[in-house]
Design brief:
The protein has a single domain, classed as Rossmann fold (3-Layer(aba) Sandwich), CATH 3.40.50. It contains 10 helices and 9 strands. It has a 9-stranded mixed β-sheet. The longest helix is centred in the middle third of the chain and has 18 residues.
């Protein structure tokens, strides 16, 4: 067992994932921090449960009211948006910031468009602005209802092993993610995550002002190439873009201090340092 897995498991033991029924769907939820404090909703990507954000939750729970979620086995982007608006309202978050990574970043954009009056800040991280053409790329090109789950899991495992070969210093991350795709994320939930993005509705003009938007990306992200990253910036016209020089698709796991620092500075929990011009790009 790697140090990352041990740390995640220790966090999960202290912050067990609860189950919540929303819209007839069974969500996993970790709630931490102080109700009444500023709210932050954390939405993972395809290969993460709520506790994939354990390092951010541990660092921020004394200062924020945090909700992190695991996806249900049914639904779609529209249904999930409604569910999360219901969840945040039920947990006392009249307004809240939302950070979504990858699939979660697409969902976070849809949520901000659906309720811009409730989203105080949008973090769109390692994500995409359009699902057009995604159905032509593996694994989305597969019949996600009928394809053997072993084949889908093996596809993820192959990509992760290639990443480990190119980045041996991130072997701990790869081991953690192999555990997620190997069964920690149940088959119905994994299929639904893939289907939700494959069938995602196109996003229109953003309803939230760019000044309340931060884009987070990584220059070496193997899943979100440069044209996709450019598409996110072009759609959102964010107040600031933070680009990690390295960190791949999971900078919040492998560079937690810097990643949490972005959240702290953006939400006024730390000195923002020098003034940042609208549209600025900062590298870490």
């Amino acid at each position: 067992m790697t140090a990352l897995i041990e740390a995640r498991d220790a966090f999960a033991a202290a912050h067990p994932e609860g189950r919540v029924a929303l819209g007839g769907r069974d969500w996993g939820v970790i709630e931490a921090g102080a109700p009444g404090a500023s709210g932050l909703l954390l939405i993972p990507g395809t290969l993460g449960r709520a506790d994939i954000f354990w390092q951010q939750i541990a660092a921020l729970e004394s200062r924020l009211h945090l909700l992190a979620v695991s996806y249900p086995a049914t639904g779609d982007i529209g249904a999930w948006t409604r569910d999360l608006l219901e969840l945040t309202r039920a947990r006392g978050m009249a307004t809240f910031a939302v950070l979504g990574s990858s699939l979660g970043g697409y969902l976070a954009q849809a949520l901000a468009d659906s309720a811009p009056d409730r989203v105080s800040h949008l973090f769109a991280a390692n994500t995409l602005a359009s699902a057009a053409g995604l159905d032509q790329r593996p694994p989305y090109s597969s019949d996600l209802d009928a394809a053997p789950i072993e084949r889908l899991r093996e596809g993820f495992a192959g990509g992760l092993q290639n990443w480990a070969a190119a980045h041996p210093e991130q072997a701990g991350l790869v081991a953690l993610l192999l555990g997620e795709v190997g069964g920690r994320i149940p088959e119905p939930e994994l299929r639904m995550r893939l289907k939700a993005l494959k069938q995602a509705p196109e996003l229109g003009k953003p309803a939230i002002d760019g000044a309340r938007t931060t884009v987070i990306e990584a220059a070496d992200d193997p899943l979100i190439p440069a044209p996709m990253r450019e598409g996110v910036r072009a759609r959102l016209r964010p107040g600031v873009t933070w680009r990690f020089r390295w960190g791949g698709h999971f900078p919040y796991v492998v560079r937690p201090l810097a990643y949490t620092g972005v959240i702290e500075r953006t939400l006024g929990l730390a000195d923002p340092g020098d003034g940042v011009q609208r549209g600025a790009l900062r590298e870490l």
